[in-house]
From TrEMBL:
Keywords: ATP-binding, Coiled coil, Nucleotide-binding
Entries under InterPro entries matching the protein: AAA+_ATPase, ABC_tran_C, ABC_tran_Xtn, ABC_transporter-like_ATP-bd, ABC_transporter-like_CS, ABCF_ATPase, P-loop_NTPase, Val-tRNA_synth_C_sf
Listed Pfam families: ABC_tran (PF00005), ABC_tran_CTD (PF16326), ABC_tran_Xtn (PF12848)
Official protein name in the record: ABC transporter domain-containing protein
The keyword Nucleotide-binding is assigned to this record: yes
Domain annotation ABC transporter: ranges: 5-218, 283-508
CDD domains, per the entry: ABCF_EF-3
GO molecular function, one term: DNA binding
Keyword Oxidoreductase: no
Coiled coil feature spans: 530-588
């Protein structure tokens, strides 16, 4: 096999922080390689180095002489005055026949029809698609892709997946889309703890072997730590006059010390943050319609919702999918009251408390420390049952080690900022989470933590996402936005929906039923609430509202500075009693709510 790229003992630091050192790997003809690492550990930096856009400190990087490399940056840059077509053609090879025809075909496949429009007027996602079309038009021998699926809708992701699977060119890519990674790549590189590890297999193979590696590494570190303690005692007792044998033992001690102080990896403990109490009424979309008027470029009005009705259930975990521009984010903004419908309304339950993670993210004070950015929202997170988690502990769970928490926000990578934003949303104890494209720019490790969090979340969830793996893991019901106000209501996850949608119209009923049944999500039959239990649940909901109101009133009064000593004493005694009553009634309400109504 011909080696296209050979990397030996590569090292890169940013300030006093080492991203990686002495990493070695190679990519050969026809190999499809995936690169996995946590946000902020140097994935994009490494790709920039390989593409010649960034320098490195030490090591060697050798390409085969006649190799042609195509690089898709995470945030592509074009001359804003060029048209979409001109931008796409800017990388076209001189040897390509009919480059304009091929460029138009690729742009059409990426749903970019306004090819004469200045690229400076496009959204970030559209520019990413133009760049992807330009790279494919370039037809390089080695493709280097940084998050190629970001901002692509599901149809385009599947088209690109099939294209790259059939492609025999060499490929190195960073992606958080695990189905995409699993189906395309046969070699996985993992950048972890400043070191590169190579796995000759797909993503599923990597998961198995990585677990084995972590267990073995932890066992070796534990063994080294035990031996280190003994050698440390010897070093302290060793006389000043050292012989040759002592000198060799001393050198071995320092090597042992380095191994013993390596980071020991542990699986993050399950995080079960207490969600706020949520009543039986969540929200009802009451015959909602929304249409955006046409523009000079696109005079036809754009229908988002047309007399849409939906009654959302307690504890429902819904996914919203559809091509870009079909109205998914607009629907979310109408639910949150950020966009007004033309007719109809959203009726929201009184106890619903939204937590919203938007595509746009949020602006942090870049000169603020990470830990302080989170402490603006809460010093402690309520886990229920009297247990609390400090802001520092919560951030550590979401892969911000204590040292990183003391860094300033401006030092964070784009993915780390998204992770920090996610922490600020989750730690406010919402009972209804709305996540709009949460997987963009988050690393796989963070996605795994978020998936586990959502699986155990005692509240409602709506997820808008193009990440098929994430959707399959988290949701059990879909709204499929098809455009022009047409919405399919599908009782299953995304893979089930694709299987069902691929069936011919005349498929036997048995085949259709099999396609929409997933053992993982089939509900276990539970008994229904008795009449007495229903009455108890109604009373609990009333009591909880009253107790919450009384608690709020007492907290306001205690902060007012107008209470007498007697009143202050009385209310201070009542507050812990209230919290105990609330917790007991919430626990009983949760027990009843687990029974199918």
């Amino acid at each position: 096999m011909i080696t296209y790229l050979d990397v030996q003992n590569l090292q890169k630091s940013v300030g006093d922080r080492i991203l990686f050192h002495d990493i070695c790997f190679s990519i050969g003809e026809g190999q499809h390689v995936g690169l996995i690492a946590k946000n902020g550990t140097g994935k994009s930096t490494l790709l920039n180095i390989l593409s010649g856009k960034e320098d490195y400190d030490n090591g060697t990087l050798v390409y085969r002489n006649d190799i042609k490399v195509g690089y898709l940056a995470q945030t592509p840059q074009f001359d804003p005055n060029l048209s979409v077509l001109q931008s796409c053609l800017s990388l076209a090879p001189l040897t390509l026949e009919n480059p304009e025809l091929r460029a138009k075909q690729l742009l059409t496949q990426f749903k970019l029809e306004e090819i004469d429009k200045p690229i400076g007027l496009l959204s970030g996602g559209q520019i990413k698609r133009v760049a992807l079309a330009a790279i494919l038009l370039e037809d390089p021998d080695l493709l280097i892709l940084d998050e190629p699926t970001n901002h692509l809708d599901l149809d385009m992701i599947e088209w690109l997946e099939n294209y790259l699977r059939r492609n025999t060119k060499a490929l190195l890519m960073v992606t958080h889309d695990r189905y995409f990674l699993d189906r395309i790549c046969s070699i996985i590189l993992e950048l972890d703890d400043e070191t590169m590890y190579t796995y000759h297999g797909n993503y599923q193979y990597y998961l198995e072997k990585r677990d084995a590696r972590v267990l073995n590494t932890n066992a070796n570190i534990a063994k080294a730590q035990n031996l280190y303690r003994k050698e440390l005692d010897w070093m302290r007792r060793m006389p000043q006059a050292r012989g040759g044998k002592a000198r060799y033992r001393k050198e071995a001690f320092y090597e042992l010390e380095q191994q013993a102080k390596r980071r020991q990896e542990e699986k993050a403990t399950r995080l079960e943050v207490k969600s706020g109490y949520i009543g039986s009424k969540i929200f009802e979309a009451e015959y909602v319609s929304k249409t955006f008027e046409g523009t000079p470029e696109k005079p036809t009005p754009k229908v988002i919702l047309n007399n849409f009705y939906y009654n959302f259930s307690r504890y429902e975990k819904m996914g919203i999918v559809g091509n870009n521009g079909t109205g998914k984010s607009t629907f979310i903004k109408m639910l949150l009251g950020k966009v007004k419908p033309d007719s109809g309304r959203f009726s929201i339950g009184e106890t619903v408390r939204f937590g919203y993670f938007s595509q746009e993210g949020m602006e942090f004070d870049s000169k603020m420390k990470v830990i302080d950015a989170v402490r603006q929202y809460a010093e402690y997170i309520d886990l229920g049952g009297g247990r609390k988690l400090s802001a520092l502990q919560f951030l550590t769970h979401f892969l911000f080690p204590p040292q990183r928490q003391q860094d300033y926000v401006y030092k964070l990578s784009g993915g780390e900022r998204r992770r920090l934003y996610l922490c600020t949303v989750l730690m406010q104890n919402p009972n209804f989470l709305i996540l709009d494209e949460p997987t963009n720019d988050l690393d796989i490790a963070t996605l795994q933590i978020l998936e586990e969090y959502l699986e155990n979340f005692k509240g409602c969830v709506i997820v808008v996402s193009h990440d098929r793996y994430f959707m399959d893991k988290v949701v059990d019901h879909l709204l499929v936005f098809k455009g022009e106000g047409i919405i399919d209501d599908f009782p299953g996850n995304y893979s089930q929906y694709r299987q069902w949608a691929a069936l011919p119209e005349n498929a036997p009923e048995q085949v259709v039923e099999q396609a929409t049944t997933n053992k993982k999500y089939v509900s276990v039959h539970r008994r229904r609430l008795t009449f007495k239990e229903k009455k108890e649940m109604e009373e609990l909901e009333h009591d909880l509202k009253c107790l919450e109101q009384e608690k709020n009133n007492i907290e306001v009064a205690l902060c007012s500075g107008t209470l007498s000593v007697e009143e202050l004493t009385e209310k201070s005694k009542r507050l812990p009693q209230l919290e105990t009553e609330l917790e007991e009634k919430e626990m009983r309400w949760l027990e009843l709510s687990e029974i199918e109504q």
